[in-house]
């Protein structure tokens, strides 16, 4: 079956299944134009071709589904997982074809046209400008029928990739499809206009579908309404300063870049809506000013948040800024960060020996997965290829690479929206994020665990958190029965020059608090260079409560001499307590975190606990204990005063008020 009208003659080439990490025939490096990564547009094209060739053997006979191998289906089931494989790889193909202005020596147009025709073969149809027919029943009984788009269902997610892919390739694919195929695909897509999304970035999937359907003349009024509705629904989640929360609450993560900024700005750009593009473009540019600081010198994006198996999708907002003209970054920095991210993963085993993206970070790793993750989920990484839409002679491709922020100088940067503090060191190229404002829901069905990728005190480009079910790294809490209290109801208290603070309710797990006991922890971090002073004021705790502070989880033994090292030293109220039991992270099969221990006194003003922490890959770093002096105790005005003296004599003072307020001087 072919979905393309006979007038388009496909040119097919045999598909290879390379291993991108080891066997892909890349062009030679160009260290003149790309001194940092060696990669150019040609490398991006070769990587896209390799990824698309690798999935081809797994397509069903009619090409409608891509049931990729794996023993971990998503909670949506194998049919939906197969649709996900089609949709996400089709989006990658669309970037490749549109970027080549329709050139298609690999026969991608024919391949995905077949899938469009087969997946919708049993649907009713809807003609442009008419109401949808009552006889349209998506999701038939055929072996390759696409599942229906329903409320809060995964096909709604995938419909956005299909619609965007069709819009980008319209002159070469949609406009050349058989009339019947166009009508059936339209009938399938229109359900996305009224399907109720999960109240999160999902609100933007009808925006992507509506933008295409309005342009194609299919239910244009309903399509435009869906676009307006989706954009309106995310508006309350914009916290200012370029950041959105992913839904109500304080879930800040990469969905800012690869969804919450991507879909509004791209819709405005494709629709040539200057008013919307100005609005969303300005937000994007503000976001990118922070976002550029999330990449280490080795190309690694910061390891925080959910859906991390999407890997180099983190490059999408960088390209989007260049595409729309709304970016504070120069072209050479944009390409350096994006190419660095792509190469970082492909050089570190992100693909299997069959060239498929694995479910994991570098290689397979369940700790970064969610129940919705299926074998084709990693191909959301296709969004990272957005830059191919920029022509080959665009300055983002022709400018000489410039170093990223983490390579230029030591930086501490407050990020007001999420209430984060970024800390990077040029000597080792590491980026650390101190989290005093982002949290997420606990895992489904288990309210007694913090989310490892949202609730930790800190994250970095070279370490990952311990997974669910393991004692948490980078955490402070009360210990009872082998369990540590949760960091819940996080309240940001501000972030500024070299500091960030928050307050949370320490919920004890497996124990009822004593009568009248309501434990609050006010936390502050002061940073300079690679050094951190972590300060916690515990109030409301009964006397004799054990507390524990943990540090960065790093490979044990170190994987290389230049690998990161984790240090944790007590300053006040704490003592050394060995290390947490070893566990796997996304970066190491066996990692350990140092730990400190203390005990509450129950005094009315609360108890202060201070420690030094450091994550560094600098082999020549001076001893941590020699870099900081600290004093802590009650002040005459009823506050707690902490005085920190850095190695060069600079002094910072922090006051903790009785109500939990923090002031840094």
TrEMBL record:
<dbReference type="InterPro" id="IPR016624">
    <property type="entry name" value="UCP014753"/>
</dbReference>
<protein>
    <submittedName>
        <fullName>DUF2264 domain-containing protein</fullName>
    </submittedName>
</protein>
<dbReference type="Pfam" id="PF10022">
    <property type="entry name" value="DUF2264"/>
</dbReference>
<feature type="region of interest" description="Disordered">
    <location>
        <begin position="123"/>
        <end position="151"/>
    </location>
</feature>
<feature type="domain" description="DUF2264">
    <location>
        <begin position="40"/>
        <end position="403"/>
    </location>
</feature>
<dbReference type="InterPro" id="IPR049349">
    <property type="entry name" value="DUF2264_N"/>
</dbReference>
